[in-house]
Amino acid sequence: MAQQVIKEIVTQKEISPNHFKMVIRAPKIAKEAQPGQFLHLKWVNDLTGQDPLLRRPISLNSIDQAKGTITIIYRVIGRGTKLLSSLQAGDEIDLMGPLGESFSVSDSASKIAIVGGGMGIAPLLPLVNQLLDLDKQVTLLLGANTKEQLINLAEYQKLDVNLKIATRDGSCGQQGFITDLLTELSKIDYVYTCGPEIMMEKVQDWAKQEKIVGEASLEERMGCGTGACLSCVCKIKVGSKDDWQYQKTCTQGPIFPLGEVIFGE
Amino acid sequence: MAQQVIKEIVTQKEISPNHFKMVIRAPKIAKEAQPGQFLHLKWVNDLTGQDPLLRRPISLNSIDQAKGTITIIYRVIGRGTKLLSSLQAGDEIDLMGPLGESFSVSDSASKIAIVGGGMGIAPLLPLVNQLLDLDKQVTLLLGANTKEQLINLAEYQKLDVNLKIATRDGSCGQQGFITDLLTELSKIDYVYTCGPEIMMEKVQDWAKQEKIVGEASLEERMGCGTGACLSCVCKIKVGSKDDWQYQKTCTQGPIFPLGEVIFGE
Amino acid sequence: MSKVNLAVDLNGLKLQNPVTTASGTFGFGEEYQDYLDLDSLGGVMVKGTTLHPKQGNPTPRIAETKAGMLNAIGLQNPGVDYLIKEILPTIKDYDFKTIVNISGNTVKDYAKLASKLNQAGVAALEVNISCPNVKQGGLAFGTQPEMAAGVVEAVRAETDLPLITKLSPNVADITEIARAVEEAGTDVISLINTLLGMKIDIDSQKPILANQMGGLSGPAIKPVAVRMVYQVAQAVDVPLIGMGGISNAQDAIEFLLAGADAISIGTANFVNPQVSMEVLEGLEDYLVENDYDNVSEIVGNAINNSKL
Amino acid sequence: MSKVNLAVDLNGLKLQNPVTTASGTFGFGEEYQDYLDLDSLGGVMVKGTTLHPKQGNPTPRIAETKAGMLNAIGLQNPGVDYLIKEILPTIKDYDFKTIVNISGNTVKDYAKLASKLNQAGVAALEVNISCPNVKQGGLAFGTQPEMAAGVVEAVRAETDLPLITKLSPNVADITEIARAVEEAGTDVISLINTLLGMKIDIDSQKPILANQMGGLSGPAIKPVAVRMVYQVAQAVDVPLIGMGGISNAQDAIEFLLAGADAISIGTANFVNPQVSMEVLEGLEDYLVENDYDNVSEIVGNAINNSKL
Ligand SMILES: Cc1cc2nc3c(=O)[nH]c(=O)nc-3n(C[C@H](O)[C@H](O)[C@H](O)COP(=O)(O)OP(=O)(O)OC[C@H]3O[C@@H](n4cnc5c(N)ncnc54)[C@H](O)[C@@H]3O)c2cc1C
Ligand SMILES: Cc1cc2nc3c(=O)[nH]c(=O)nc-3n(C[C@H](O)[C@H](O)[C@H](O)COP(=O)(O)OP(=O)(O)OC[C@H]3O[C@@H](n4cnc5c(N)ncnc54)[C@H](O)[C@@H]3O)c2cc1C
Ligand SMILES: Cc1cc2nc3c(=O)[nH]c(=O)nc-3n(C[C@H](O)[C@H](O)[C@H](O)COP(=O)(O)O)c2cc1C
Ligand SMILES: Cc1cc2nc3c(=O)[nH]c(=O)nc-3n(C[C@H](O)[C@H](O)[C@H](O)COP(=O)(O)O)c2cc1C
Ligand code: FES
Ligand code: FES
Fold it and tell me: Which residues does FMN bind (chains C, D) (predicted)?
């Protein structure tokens, strides 16, 4: 069950320029949250007043049930994330969560590919851990502008995953887009993707061609985070060929089946 | 010449419950400012956004030309002063000043009474010092709710002034209103007053009756602080008996001649 | 046990307290069940409903502004038949009053909606003549007294349910519209809907909303909303439900003092899903502290006091 | 030496750059001489002037709201004769264009004001048909197309000066008024004036402003202002001066993209007396960074881009 709670920040660290990692003590959320879910955050401080007015959705980057903590990793974009980055250990943060649907794990699929790009790498760590726990073979394709922006790289290097990397500046792995490496994959049963729309669209096209099922994690501007306001909708194919519906990214997503997402509209 | 500058806070201290004293390094303002003038303040911090939107007028409580510092003393009332009180040494503050007319000092007057009440005591210290420098005989009447709220009491006790005190709770001086002590005064040439309207009105009535000239320092809600917006006006008698004009507290005041102020409208 | 009587009777629409949630911001109530005790709300205005299902506008549908937000949802909803069959049964057991907000392209649409909902077991209808996000109808009905009255009369003819008419703030004289809908038979007036606004992205040099313009809501519009309630309260006799920027109990009290008999909370639900409970508690505290027995004792006090 | 051409020609009113200060918020300019280089402003709209001196409203005249403020100054001013004799001579040597904002109770008032100011050496007149704070006239002129046109025609007949007409946002369809004043012969349209609003003190249970209602300005109203500029730019051919909530260069650019040829800064002067200079610099930076030669190249781009 989702809840709204005010929690304490355990640590906050700038892990690379403009990228922050925040650990929050929230045992109940840590206990319930599943890979792919997100939080809807507000900075608790009388002094900030109502600017920005709305909350900010951020994915769970790690869920530590034992310690009762959750971790988020985010990039500073505008005023909201800038404010978030000014918080320190001991400060309080107002969060709603865990929200949204989680990634689903198919029993039959054993060879899994996960394609993450940029900030879209952030929600993948709990998924990778879950899949490894289930003894799946995981090929992880990570793309970013620079090596520094490859979120959780060090963690992944320690895990038993087949890691493939592409950076725009060539500072790590192959120079170019991570989707360039899709052709290297073979015999994949299931693919997960999260990242820029253009990347996910390419993954979807590739998966369709290769007849691979999978899921994508989407981002949309959110108001309520509860399914009430209908601001976060995305176009999802339903029924016959050209039919589609607006579905809510916050409650029906953010995870949607690959092949059904109509990107770029 | 008034200026808008961003300056550093040297110290900020809670001197009694909800009352704060802030020292700011501002050599140029310290050099130019005269007793009775005020600052128009804004908290410099991106995080606060635009709430409150407007600046806050606060009087100069001390002007130290030698050290290049100025001091303000204020009470926390609403969100603006609450924010102000959260600032710490080393933080920056945005100030416009020095603003307004200063108290005028008459060469011919030698026996001076000064009647201050509540927060209205705050702007009086520089005036007292100035008058003492000019070898005037100063009787200082200070009123407040409690002893704790008698601003600068310790400083005044060290100065060569005839100090009379009244508090509402009787914790210092006579119990009651400071205006109750007006009748004890004799042979006063000039009177200054600053405090609640009701107090200043009583001082004005008394001065009129005793045929004493003087000045009052007024407070009005301010927008610009520069004389541009006409939000801070007060009713001042002009010309013949019942004629009056709205005058600007920020530039034509805050100091106005006693006897000419129409209070309570 | 409450020490003050918070119940309000809006011309027949009885609410256990004056705190309701605004249409389009609270879904069908259930979306918020994890966050608060829905049973303690006075009423829930459910999402704007149309005769036929609507997909709504393309995204982005919202944009933030200073102390406010713009929305151009475009009335996405599953249509009245689906509402009656699939949704209303799931919320009928809550203690709050379910009020269905209806929107049409034509007067006939409104009448049909009313007739379909008449026996649907809802507490009241809120006639939205003020949605700024649909091309036809909507806004036009809300800005012309005769058209506004026409819609209300048509709906009135089809239903015995208490009728709330929701006014648009995008007019020169809101009292004119208020009087027109009162005469046409509305039981209650709710106000305000959103102000029409827009935001431009200076990098792409395009409006942020796919729909270009949208409705401005949130704290930014509160002064306009309070003013309109204050004006309408003096112009009509029917009870008012005030809204626009309410974020806390103080804001809600301002609306009551301005002449609203009940209030509705919109955008603030997104910021703080428990805001309606906090408003309810804060209102009760205010009444107790100031020795009132009944919430109605403060309604319109600012009008009376400013005439002193 | 500026790398971009910032000069604008508003139907004959030539400004060295598009940054002006809004009437009632910048006095006669001189009030701000300690804080900025007045000579670098495009224009200064001086305080609203009436035929006879006016005392204005009782205090409190202002109240703060979320991201905005209410004012009910009530047009306190020394009257047009005093303006011409005592004030204009003191500001005539600045490089900014002095624009006199005029308000009347009757059409005749406006005509007389125009005729008195015709030879007074000012750069233009701004006809305020939109002041919400005076009982008679003002607002009424701004909400009815025929009355608005009547005022403009009467002023037009008395002066050869460039004529700016300032519109009220308190209307259902601002394009209707805009077209009416364009036809009546205005050279330029400025918009928006303040939205009518109100704030109530919940302790005293009274409106905070002595005048009860006042005009809402500041960042809160920017989305409404941008929307109206965007609408009016598509409805008329005369140039526009956009205003309402501009606090920085980004805000100003939004107005230009929405279709304003110049902009005016009001409330933000109170918050930051140097804001107009910062807007000017920020605008120039934006134009340079995006390789424009002329500020006019971005005017209305959001309109064109949203039609793509
Ligand atoms: C389900 C979900 C999970 C997310 N997880 C992460 C994460 O783990 N790490 C991370 O860095 N970012 C994540 N994002 C994106 C993050 O929400 C935005 O970067 C953030 O809202 C920007 O806020 P701002 O005030 O800094 O930026 P501004 O640009 O000032 O924001 C303006 C408005 O646009 C919205 N907005 C801006 N960018 C986005 C975006 N990409 N997606 C949705 N709304 C946006 C904001 O919420 C706000 O309403 C996620 C978004 C969604 C929807
Ligand atoms: C010339 C002048 C000198 C002043 N000097 C001092 C001083 O030395 N020490 C001190 O403690 N206070 C002083 N004040 C009063 C001080 O400005 C207010 O207490 C302060 O503005 C309250 O702001 P707030 O946001 O905390 O309160 P809020 O009540 O939230 O403010 C709301 C609005 O009302 C205005 N306001 C509230 N109270 C006053 C007031 N008494 N006078 C004018 N405007 C007010 C605020 O500026 C703001 O615009 C002075 C006022 C003036 C005009
Ligand atoms: C996202 C969103 C959707 C809305 N949808 C509707 C609607 O369907 N019908 C309606 O009458 N009002 C709708 N409104 C208007 C609100 O009910 C309310 O009148 C307005 O937002 C002002 O209140 P607030 O400032 O508290 O949000 C909507 C508002 C928002 C923010
Ligand atoms: C204190 C104050 C006084 C004003 N006086 C006038 C006036 O005399 N004439 C006029 O046309 N507009 C007047 N206005 C309106 C402004 O010129 C401007 O149109 C409005 O404030 C919106 O811009 P802003 O949000 O940048 O302030 C006044 C505004 C304020 C805040
Ligand atoms: S954010 Fe409100 S429905 Fe998804
Ligand atoms: S505060 Fe603007 S004129 Fe005094």
Answer: 23, 47-48, 101, 128, 166, 192, 218, 244-245, 266-267
